[in-house]
Amino acid sequence: MQGGSSGIGYGLKYQARCISDVKADTDHTSFITGTLSLREENEVHLIRLSSGGTELICEGLFSHPNEIWDLASCPFDQRIFSTVFSTGESYGAAIWQIPELYGQLNSPQLEQIASLDAHVGKINCVLWWPSGRHDKLISIDDENLLLWSLDCLKKVAQVQSKESAGMLHYLSSGAWDPHDVNAVAATCESSVQFWDLRTMKKANSIEHAHIRKANYDVKKKHMLVTAEDESGIHVWDLRKPKIPVKELPGHMHWTWAVTCNPEYDGLILSAGTDSTVNLWLAPTSASDESTSGSIAESPTQQADPLLNSYSDYEDSVYGLAWSSREPWIFASLSYDGRVVVESIKPFLSRK
Amino acid sequence: MGTDDVPLDDKAKRMRDLLSSFYSPDPSSTPNVSSKHGALDAINTNSFNADQYMNLLVQKSNLEALLQRHVEMAAEIKNLDTDLQMLVYENYNKFISATDAIKRMKSNIVGMEANMEQLLDKIMSVQSRSDGVNTSLFEKREHIEKLHRTRNLLRKVQFIYDLPARLGKCIKSEAYADAVKFYTGAMPIFKAYGDSSFQDCKRASEEAVAIIVKNLQRKLFSDSESIQARAEAAVLLKQLDFPVDSLKAKLLQKLEQSLGDLQLKTDELENVTVESTDPSKQGKVSDSIRSTPHEASVREFAEAICAYRVIFPDSEKQLITLAQDLVIKHFEMTEQYVKRRISSANLLGVLRTIWTDVLLMDEILCEAVLPDFSLEAAQVAVKQYVASTFTHLLQDISDALLKVNISPKEAAEEFPLQVALEASKKAVLQGSMDVLLDFRQLLDDDLGLLVKLRDFIIDWVQEGFQDFFRALDDRFLLLSGKNNSSSQDNGLTEGTQSEKVLAGLVLVLAQLSVFIEQTAIPRITEEIAASFSGGGVRGYENGPAFVPGEICRIFRSAGEKLLHHYINMSTQRVSTLLRKRFTTPNWVKHKEPREVHMFVDLFLQELEAVGSEVKQILPQGLLRKHRRSDSNGSTTSSRSNPLRDDKMSRSNTHRGRSQLLETHLAKLFKQKVEIFTKVEYTQESVVTTIVKLCLKSLQEFVRLQTFNRSGFQQIQLDIQFLRTPLKETVEDEAAIDFLLDEVIVAASERCLDPIPLEPPILDRLIQAKLAKSKEQNPIAS
């Protein structure tokens, strides 16, 4: 179960929290990541997996004015990405473009397309339209949900609508439903809230404490995976928000991030503050049969859902991303700034 | 015709054919066929054409053959001649002998006619004499016959006139059989002349018969009469054309009624046994004494059935159902009875009475196969008994456990958890032992019913234990509020339950699981092996029903799960505390630290509560320092650089870019410190794990914030204060030190201006806090 052997490492200079798959890059498997350093000059790294899959190459290194708390790659343009950053005292969010000839420039500067500057409190994340070219963006801060309309050419972003989550609901993160582009899930302290973007109203919610991250199953509609601080990972069927469909033990300490594989059904990756990344196999077999089938089987079928635990990390792992180009590859980022790219191919056969 | 039977050669055969054709009645039939084809064979047929034959012969044969033929033919002709001669002689001989025989017959017949005439004469004379006798006796005989007939008639009339009187006499002497015989004898006459000449007579005798019928009925229903008498009465009534079926039904009803009475008595008896049987032996004695009235009534019932059977011989079917009803009712009662809490002795008492009843009934009514019938019923009852016993045991244990929920209110008990643990331990072990002992009584008893069920009982007990422990495991999970989310019904109640569940209870459950795995199961296995081995009614391929290995595994994993659940619950409480602490203030605008923040007190209080819970339940571990081998492979580790104070002072100078490199380098040389080690069932291990998890949470919370210098200093102060009390409570000082340092490192990394407090100021503030808490403590206590 020692995961260290297969991983390909890449070191960032400073601590870091976020890594994102560059979805729009169809020729290479690449990831983008940014550092989190309060007092140093922060960097954004564009990393590419070499064609042999044995090496991580730094494709681009750009300086970023502030420490990066959240980073997301644009799904339709590989050169565009968003960051949420903090100056220490205040927060900001912006859309950046990597300069076209970045390979040739000596110290390339990121070009800011737009600043999402309608926020007051602590900004938590920026969500891109799930797939394809679209001008919609969502940014979530502690109290509000903002829908932006972005024009890349004119380099402006305008607030389309804004809704407050209500008193005492501190939003922490969110996810855009890939099956229903009008639905966004936002996690807050005591629940996951589902927003309808057409009306900007709360449509539904899952009452469950301390959810840190939520992730939609790309392959299956209505399935949402959540990571909680203490109680591990839950798989929900949104049509039955009362009880989780499945429960996974999670990590020794908090489960920080969780993400479903974009291709292989039931493969879930989770990262925790116990310095491990766990690969789970939790087939949620289309909810209709799961109600009858899995319950009947579950007492007998006690197979360990944990496929592998990658434990070769020095610090808490906060960043996690599947590659959408090669869905058996994922990148993880631990707090000490180490990117590790692993292949789960050895475990696919077990499915 | 062919008289010669000797085997024939060709020639002789032809000869015979020729002769036969000569004698044959229809000579034309055979030659017709052959004549058409002029062949050499045609020589033997009637239509033999000599010329044709010659022509054919000449044409077909050469000279030599012709010559030969000639010779042959000459010989044949000669033969034929001699044969013919022989035949003529023979016939002539026969004719001569026939004439001789006819001549002899003629001479013999001559004297016969005279003899015949003589015979005729004699017969005629005999006939005439007998006619004379007949005519002379005829008149007298007729007279005698008439007289005889009259006399018979008169006698019958006499009998009928006498009948009422005679019947009366019979009634007086109770000779009902005679009476019935007389009456039935007179019946045809009454039928024929009853309306005319013998009217009075008939009425009188009918009255008498009515009395007889009444008497007979009374006799039939009176229990004091002997069975034979009653049976006779029934037969007589039947002869009198009395509707016996209604009587039968009535009597059956009576029997059923008495069955009902019998049932009531059983119930009383049970009540009696419940009260009277404490020590099993005495119980048995008192059983036998007490059951006598019951037994007597059953005996009576049996006799009644026996009588009934004699009286109505064709009523077996009804009686069988009746007897089975009795058994069914008995067992229904038993099943009701079993639902209450009873000991085996009580059950035995009941079963024993039932069995004696059954045996009694069986003697009388063996067609009902009552023993088999009751065996089946007993099987159900005993099985139910086993099941209900286990249910009660389960209830006992959970009751013992749930006392924890109540007892905290009663401050009188100092260690509610410990009490609960001891109580539930006792409930499990003692309860199981009692149950086994109880079942052993069932096994050891030599009651015929149970002997046959022994194998079944053994299997049931084994199965019962297996199911019981599974159910117990489920119950534990239910009590701990950590339901299988897969079972959706429970899932609905989960939310409400988990709030009610006390962390202490979870800990008790965890320890109880360990106890069951390590102590209770081996004991029970031993006990089962000693007295409940065998069985084997189940297929052997299934193995024994009770699989201690499996149960142990279940409880080991349950214990671990529960322990983790306990740790989780405790950590969660602290976590909420920490979350509030770190999300509420604006750390970037924090004011200078004046005192240790009060969350530290709350944190320590929580730990203390955990400590006191743990102390009650878990054993003390060996006091030792952290060893690396304690961590198992699957747990993960985190190594880092525990920055000592001296390093801290260095870090307040500008560290620049080399800071991370420095920590990385330091990590390489530092011994790996394991944070997430395997939890053991000791006080220290559990507390240490909880503290570690809490500190890790603290670190994570710190990492999410940005601090100004004062905020950082506040954290530094709080952590510094925590250092001493935490080390006291925890076995793995190195790890705690490391984690506390990590918190400070995290804070300094997240600080805009990380200048730590000067050690003297730190000391002063900590001393002030200590003094303050000392001041408060006496008041509090």
Automatic annotation (TrEMBL), chain A:
Q: Which UniProt keywords apply?
A: Repeat, WD repeat
Sequence ranges assigned to domain EIPR1-like beta-propeller in this UniProt record: 5-280
The cross-references to InterPro entries, in alphabetical order and at most eight, read: Beta-prop_EIPR1-like (IPR059104), EIPR1 (IPR040323), WD40/YVTN_repeat-like_dom_sf (IPR015943), WD40_repeat_dom_sf (IPR036322), WD40_rpt (IPR001680)
Please give the PROSITE patterns that the UniProt record associates with this protein.
Answer: WD_REPEATS_2
A Pfam family for this UniProt protein? Beta-prop_EIPR1
Keyword Repeat included in the entry's annotation: yes
Protein name from the UniProt record: WD repeat-containing protein DWA2
What is the originating organism of this protein? Theobroma cacao (Cacao)
Q: Where are the WD repeats?
A: 248-280
- Similarity annotation: Belongs to the WD repeat EIPR1 family.
UniProtKB/TrEMBL annotation, chain B:
Amino-acid biosynthesis among keywords: no
Instruction: Name the principal localization, coarsely classed.
Output: Golgi
Q: According to the lineage, what is the superkingdom?
A: Eukaryota
Q: For this UniProt record, give its keywords in alphabetical order, as a comma-separated list.
A: Coiled coil, Golgi apparatus, Lipid transport, Protein transport, Transport
Coiled-coil residues are 63-129
Q: Where is this region: Disordered?
A: 624-656
Listed GO biological process terms: endocytic recycling; Golgi organization; Golgi vesicle transport; lipid transport; lysosomal transport; protein transport; retrograde transport, endosome to Golgi
Where does it live in the cell?
A: Golgi apparatus, trans-Golgi network
Biased-composition ranges, Low complexity, are 631-641
Q: Give the residue range of the signal peptide.
A: none
Q: Which GO terms describe its cellular component?
A: cytosol; EARP complex; GARP complex; membrane
Q: What does this protein do?
A: Acts as component of the GARP complex that is involved in retrograde transport from early and late endosomes to the trans-Golgi network (TGN).
Indicate the quaternary assembly.
Answer: Component of the Golgi-associated retrograde protein (GARP) complex.
Give the record's family classification.
Belongs to the VPS51 family.
Question: What is the protein name for this chain?
Answer: Vacuolar protein sorting-associated protein 51 homolog
